[in-house]
Every structure is written in C-alpha cells, then in structure tokens.
UniProtKB/TrEMBL annotation:
CDD domains: UDG-F2_TDG_MUG. The keyword Chloroplast does not apply. Pfam families: UDG. Residues 8-151 form the Uracil-DNA glycosylase-like domain. It comes from the Bacteria. Keywords: DNA damage, DNA repair, Hydrolase. This is Mismatch-specific DNA-glycosylase. One of its GO terms (molecular function) is pyrimidine-specific mismatch base pair DNA N-glycosylase activity. One of its GO terms (biological process) is base-excision repair, AP site formation. Transmembrane segments: none annotated. It comes from Peribacillus muralis.
Length: 176
C-alpha cells in the first residue's frame, strides 16, 4: 500500500508528525482517518481549530497554518510493523523536511515518534528544551490513537499548550 501525501508548505505554524499512516488512512489518502483516532476531536477541543474537521478536510488545515507528515510513510496496522531501516530512512527524511519547510513548531503526535526521531528514551510531554533544528521548536504530545490509555481530557490539556505557544511566538515576532 502506498503512503499518503504530506501536507507541507514553508513557515507553517505547526507541523504534526505521526508514526505512520493507518491502513484506513492509506485507503482513503487522508491523515488520521481511522474512526477510532481522536486527532480531529483533540484539535478542536484544545482550541487549535474553530470546529471539528474531518479527515477528508486534512489538506484545508494548511490554510490554518498546520501541516502533516509521518516519520514513516508506509501504512501499517500498527507502529510495531515498522522496520528499523524504515525508521532510519524516515528520520533522515523528516530532518530534511523540517529544515526545508521551517515550521515554527513540530508537534510529534506520540512520545514514541519523538523517541524514534531523537533516539532518546527519557522524553517529557510538551515543549522540548533542545530542538534539533534552529528554525523550529519541538513539542511532544500524546498519540491521538484510541489505543492510548490516557484519559482524553489529559491529552487535550497537553495539546492546549500549542495555541498558547503559538500566541507567545506571535507576540515575540511583533514585539508585543
């Protein structure tokens, strides 16, 4: 099964990075398309979007300043199906995308995604102290998968930090 298209452009507010597309996303060609995935609900309830979007509207989020990619492009049933080689290649490609597109924030949707990217295990939620890119800050949020055992309210609370960070960045840029 082919991977799904990234939604990227220069200077995004947030680039959301997942592990890899689900089989459902691979079938539909849209990010976070599995009906059990809570991504779209989380974005809305955290204040990142003005309404709850649907997976088939993922491309329109570029207009809000949000883009999508994955550390591995091949759709699988789960992250356990991703090979070591795919992670190595994916890390290189992701670093290249971040350097090229220079998003303000890179939000890793799942601690495991960030652990694979940084090759580190002790990762806190939220804004990371040492980004690999000089142009982008790195943020780690819980996975939106329905398999995650955290309460949805706790997940949404972590995502609520993102609009605050964006506002602070905007204020820094304008000198307010």
């Amino acid at each position: 099964m082919e991977g799904i298209a990234d939604h990227l452009r220069k200077n995004l507010d947030i680039l959301f990075v997942g592990f890899n597309p689900s089989i459902r996303s691979g079938e539909t060609g849209h990010h976070y398309a599995n009906p059990t995935n809570r991504f779209w609900k989380i974005l809305y309830e955290s204040g990142l979007t003005p309404r709850k979007f649907h997976p088939d509207e993922d491309l329109t989020l570029l207009d809000l300043g949000y883009g999508f990619t994955n550390i591995v492009s091949r759709p699988t049933k789960g992250a356990a199906d991703i090979t070591k080689e795919e992670y190595i290649d994916g890390r290189k490609q992701l670093k290249s995308k971040i350097e090229k597109y220079k998003p303000k924030l890179v939000c890793f949707v799942g601690k495991g995604v960030y652990q694979e990217y940084r090759q580190s295990r002790n990762i806190p939620w939220g804004l990371q102290e040492n980004s690999q890119s000089n142009a982008s800050m790195e943020f780690v949020a819980p996975s939106s998968s329905g398999l995650v055992r955290m309460k949805i309210e706790e997940i949404i609370e972590i995502y609520r930090e993102l609009p605050i960070l964006l506002k602070n960045l905007e204020n820094d840029e304008t000198g307010i």
